[in-house]
Write a structure and sequence with these properties.
heterodimer, A: 98 residues, mainly alpha, 3 helices, 47% helix, extended, B: 258 residues, globular
């Protein structure tokens, strides 16, 4: 439990959360206006957003997990430096034979 | 710190920063020879402490080859052979930030060799966990690698960049957890304070990102302000932003506050 009341949390964070909510909505509108097919990130984002709805706890952790690589073995070789924010799936070429 | 300007140092000292520590990091490009790392380790152990001292700030560092540069096993091995030469420098706290980046087989081999060096020389360990979609899997692999060496004490390792889906596994296994604050991506101060409220203040510290994305040198003092806004007490805040990092780093005999 937090030692703040819900209204105190609203007092501190409502305007910032509202701003982020509108930004999120604008991002989705922007995607609608853009042309062409979207890559795996769009579907991953849509799936992650489902965790915001409802009353189940640990939304942040569930959003992070839904965007995460679920595999457990090291990949054969790193071909990039940066992560991209969502798991693209496991290419056959990167699997290490067990 | 390599990535901090004199303006940053002035701001940090004005805000009450008592010491800085920086891990050996990726330069933003791949160094192409062990000589580049030799020069970098000289920068971390000689030049940067002198630069920080001009602001009255003790400077400490950690040594390693960063996981982003660990695919080249030959170069990584040469660099790791170099590390013991620098370990007795007065500002070296331990080995770091080791870890994984894309969770590759070679990164894991280099991590395991670093763990061996830390164990042989009884060094503290600072760990980088991968970012974004690679973090959960990488944290699991890293913890398994550390636990595989019985000489490694979890209380002498800090697993950095934890987030909501990794903090439990780090704390439950007895390691320290680091929360790295970013203004635009990854962990924000609000989320970091949420994690402190949920998981307690034992074996946790906060730090400011200082890599190649946008970062704020005053991220930790700003987080302290937010903690006050949430009506946390001074001892609670002081424990997180000061007592905890001091407690961890004092496990190195080299760590001294003025």
């Amino acid at each position: 439990m937090s030692h703040l009341s819900r209204n105190q949390v609203l007092d501190l964070y409502f305007m910032d959360a509202r701003h982020k909510l509108i930004d999120l909505a604008a991002f989705l509108d922007r995607m609608d206006r853009a042309g062409g097919e979207a890559d795996f990130r769009a579907e991953a984002f849509a799936q992650a957003m489902q965790h915001l709805l409802g009353e189940a706890p640990d939304r942040a952790a569930r959003v992070l997990m839904s965007l995460s690589d679920p595999t457990t073995q090291p990949i054969a070789k790193a071909t990039t430096k940066a992560a991209c924010g969502a798991w693209p799936g496991e290419p056959e070429s990167e699997k290490i034979p067990s | 710190m390599v990535s901090r300007t004199t303006d940053d140092y002035l701001a940090m000292v004005t805000a009450g920063c008592q010491a800085v520590c920086e891990p050996a990091f990726w330069a933003g490009f791949d160094r192409c020879s062990v000589d580049g790392f030799h020069d970098y380790f000289c920068q971390l152990t000689e030049h940067e402490p002198r630069r920080a001292a001009k602001f009255g700030l003790p400077h400490y560092c950690w040594l390693c080859i960063n996981p982003k540069e660990s695919e080249d096993l030959k170069l990584a091995s040469e660099v790791m052979d170099l590390i013991p030469q620098f370990m007795d420098k007065p500002n070296v706290l331990g080995i770091g930030e080791i870890g994984l980046n894309k969770n590759s087989a070679n990164e894991l081999k280099v991590l395991e060799r670093h763990i061996e060096i830390a164990a042989q020389h009884d060094q503290l360990i600072l760990v980088h966990t991968p970012h974004l979609e690679d973090k959960y899997k990488g944290t699991r692999l890293i913890l398994d690698a550390l636990k595989n060496d019985p000489r490694i004490q979890p209380s002498r390792c800090v697993i950095d960049h934890v987030e909501e889906h990794t903090i439990s596994m780090v704390l439950d296994e007895g390691f320290w957890a680091g929360m790295t604050l970013y203004p635009e991506s990854k962990c924000s101060s609000s989320r970091a304070i949420d994690m402190l409220e949920r998981f307690g203040t034992d074996r946790i510290w906060m730090n400011s990102a200082c890599d190649w994305g946008i970062s704020r040198p005053l991220a930790v003092p700003h987080a302290a302000i937010e903690m006050k806004q949430r009506a946390h007490t001074h001892p609670w805040i002081d424990k997180v932003v000061y007592q905890n990092p001091v407690a961890f780093m004092q496990q190195s005999p080299r760590f001294r506050l003025p």
